[in-house]
Amino acid sequence: MMAKKKYYAVRKGRKTGILQTWAECQESIKRYSSAEYKSFERLKDAEAYLVFSTIKSSVKTIDELEENEMIAYVDGSYSAKKQLYSYGVVVFHNCKKHSFSDAESNPDLLSMRNVAGEIKGAEIAMKYAVDNKVEKLYLHYDYDGIEKWATNAWEAKKEGTQEYKRMYNRISKELEVIFVKVKAHSGDEFNDEADELAKSAITLHETTKKEIAETDL
Question: What phi and psi values does residue 105 have, to the nearest 5 degrees?
């Protein structure tokens, strides 16, 4: 069976516009640090992506969330002394706030330092969304790889990033993820909270993942 035709819409890259092959798209975005692109099966969807900045215009606040939508903030940390990486996740869904954190020491991921925690936090947020029948997740992050590995803007070379990409590919079939870049240590309340959760997880390391709190909004 022949593969479905895809259109590659590149908003930012060496060559922008609608490209016909993945090879052309790769040539445009590879090692282009601020690349923005997406693939579509319908030409009109690719054209709409180029015309409208859909990600930025569709970002919602906590008060605007529908029942099938969720906001998450994720961050990671690392301790060379304890040989641990960790994640912190703050989630808003159905008028409740949930906080998660944990520290891990998988030897295959330790070399990635805090990036391993960033990835684990994103994975936890996505899995939580799917488990709770969420259809759209606004994922706030401060490390570029969280979006760029998922969207193929960066090549996933290590096992940790490759597994993250594989997980995203599976989950994105049932969950729409809107990636929202947050500047690190810029005073964003919930990004800072996720950062503190990640750091505390190393200090208070436990062997199992823990939901720290659930708060009514």
Answer: -140, 35
